[in-house]
Specification:
Helices cover about 35% and strands about 15% of the residues. It is of the alpha+beta class. The chain has a four-stranded mixed beta sheet with strand order 6-9-7-8, with helices on both faces. Strands 4-3-5 form a three-stranded antiparallel beta sheet. Helix 3 packs across helix 6 and helix 3 packs antiparallel against helix 7.
Length: about 210
């Protein structure tokens, strides 16, 4: 199920590799620097004509290898082989930054017991966050508690415990829950794009909020 957005503001772009017209949530924008270097524009705010590529490591690698960026720009531009790794890093940075803001605003709780209590709160959390390297048993228990309360929540599980811990300023973060809001929507958006650059597990029976969210 795609992120809910106003249909009037939903924009579509064409991938320069596949030729597919897709929603921006499924693409990465690139721009060309004054020096002719291709740079990721994760926030899609840099000036100039954008070059769009599907949010998929293999497709981006093909764009680099087959010189698709120069063809799209109609100029001889330089696309580094490190672009896929850089895109992944930048998406993770945006996500961890948003998680930090969510914690500071009081919209996010961490820890198994705090998440359990949050599931009984009104309103209930809109998103569960599970470390990608957390124990499967703990995750099953959290999902089981949510479902026992009639909650079928999306689960963001594409960040490691180390990444979550760094973002939230705490040690060994495995479980977290986040209230509804703009930050939740943005995290789901970015997690969908990050899924194209790293493997993400999907829990059977959970409700997908976006491709790449369990």
């Amino acid at each position: 199920m795609a992120i809910e957005e106003d249909s009037e503001t939903m924009r579509e772009r064409k991938c320069i590799v596949t030729g597919e017209v897709r929603e921006e949530a499924q693409l990465i924008r690139f721009a060309v620097s004054p020096d002719g270097d291709v740079v990721p524009d994760i926030a899609a705010k840099l000036p100039g004509r954008g070059i769009w590529v599907s949010a998929d490591r293999a497709i981006l690698e093909r764009a680099i290898a087959k010189n698709h960026f120069s063809k799209a720009a109609k100029a001889n531009v330089k696309a580094s082989a490190e672009l896929p790794a850089l895109v992944e890093k930048l998406i993770v940075q945006r996500m961890t930054g948003d998680l930090g803001m969510a914690r500071r605003s009081g919209a996010l709780v961490t820890g198994f017991d705090n998440v359990a209590r949050a599931l009984d709160s009104k309103p209930a959390p809109a998103l569960l966050i599970e470390a990608s390297d957390g124990a499967a048993d703990g995750r099953r228990k959290v999902l089981g508690m949510a479902k026992s309360r009639g909650l079928d929540l999306p689960v963001l599980d594409c960040l490691s415990s180390a990444e979550l811990s760094l973002a939230l300023g705490r040690e060994n973060v495995i479980h977290a829950a986040l209230k509804a809001g703009a930050l939740t929507d943005r995290l789901i958006f970015e997690a969908g794009r990050l899924a194209g650059f790293r493997s993400v597990t999907v829990d059977a029976g959970s409700t997908p909020a976006h491709e790449g969210i369990a």
